[in-house]
Amino acid sequence: MTRKPVDTGSPDRLYTVTGGRSRADGFFDLVTLVVSECRPTPGMQSEHARTLELCEHPTAVVEIAAELKLPITVVRILLGDLLDMGRITARHPPPTRSAASLPDSDLLKEVLHGLRNL
Amino acid sequence: MGSAISELPSHRTPLADAAETGLKIVVVGGFGVGKTTLVRSVSEIRPLNTEEVMTQAGVGVDETGDVATKTTTTVAFDFGRISLNERMVLYMFGAPGQERFWFLWDRLFSGTLGAVVLVDTRRMDDSWYAIDRLEHHRTPFVVAVNRFDDDTVRHSLDEIRQALALPEHVPMVDCDARVRESGKNVLITLVDHLYELAMAQEATP
Ligand SMILES: Nc1nc2c(ncn2[C@@H]2O[C@H](COP(=O)(O)OP(=O)(O)OP(=O)(O)O)[C@@H](O)[C@H]2O)c(=O)[nH]1
Ligand SMILES: [Mg+2]
């Protein structure tokens, strides 16, 4: 199954960027922090190179999307490629809670502390 | 913009290298209620904008899954962030409350700590749907009333609670989305609420 992101400016280019694939698994959360494991290499796909530059410091998936001006779905696919090639690592958010449960209180206490100190 | 400055490095402020835990909360509310303003007032970065595309099968989709029969909708949202400490960073998303947006809730915001429903008392109807959806997704939330200067009828929080048929256990707070301390207070109200809920849950075996 293929998908053309028809309303994102230059659909053909985007289609090329993601190699025509449309499936991005749920591996990358919006706030998963991505870190580069290597420098961009000459001839590398420009979106890959740009991502590696951005992620020299930890960078959330959603920030990468905003900087590259690409939809989240497309960025998830790009990141999947880079991960498969061992060029990035991912720091995931705490495990997704089930519908009715909450993150543990220790974590929330740390968040509160951080907010109060702003 | 002149080409001479187009190669300037972007003014991104990177996270600390020790940053390892990204957390998120969502600010939902009707059109023009002050979502972006609230995010901006508490964020350490200028709010950034991004989007997600949603593909739906069109009416009468054929078995071959022909691309032409699918429709694609784009939902845009903005976000800011707060570094809570060297390791933890909190992302705040300003999300439109309208219907099509909720199709993307799970893909974008599953695992969110909680939500802030931002309310403009002059257009309270816009809040109904968001509250209903959050309850449906079992996402804990607080209601923040953004007080606009030109709102002449200043309803009390109790009146607003009545109007929204909001249960007693949902915290409500007044705010001025433009003011940092006020925005901060909204976030603290939410996380305080989450903390209480988590403590209560941990106390029951
Ligand atoms: N007087 C007053 N004006 C406000 C307040 N909050 C926001 N505004 C103004 O209201 C307008 C809309 O605010 P936004 O933050 O853009 O609202 P929004 O919810 O992000 O709007 P959309 O993304 O377009 O739905 C802006 O001109 C703000 O300056 C407030 O607390 N008081
Ligand atoms: Mg906005």
From TrEMBL, chain A:
A Pfam family it matches: DUF742
Alphabetized InterPro entries for the sequence: DUF742
Highest taxon of the lineage: Bacteria
The protein, known as: DUF742 domain-containing protein
From TrEMBL, chain B:
Protein's name in the database: ATP/GTP-binding protein
InterPro entries: Gliding_Motility_GTPase, Gpn, P-loop_NTPase
Domain of life from the UniProt record: Bacteria
Pfam families according to UniProt: ATP_bind_1
Keywords: GTP-binding, Hydrolase, Nucleotide-binding
Similarity field: Belongs to the GPN-loop GTPase family.
Gene3D superfamilies (alphabetical): P-loop containing nucleotide triphosphate hydrolases (3.40.50.300)
SUPFAM superfamilies reported in the protein's UniProt record: P-loop containing nucleoside triphosphate hydrolases
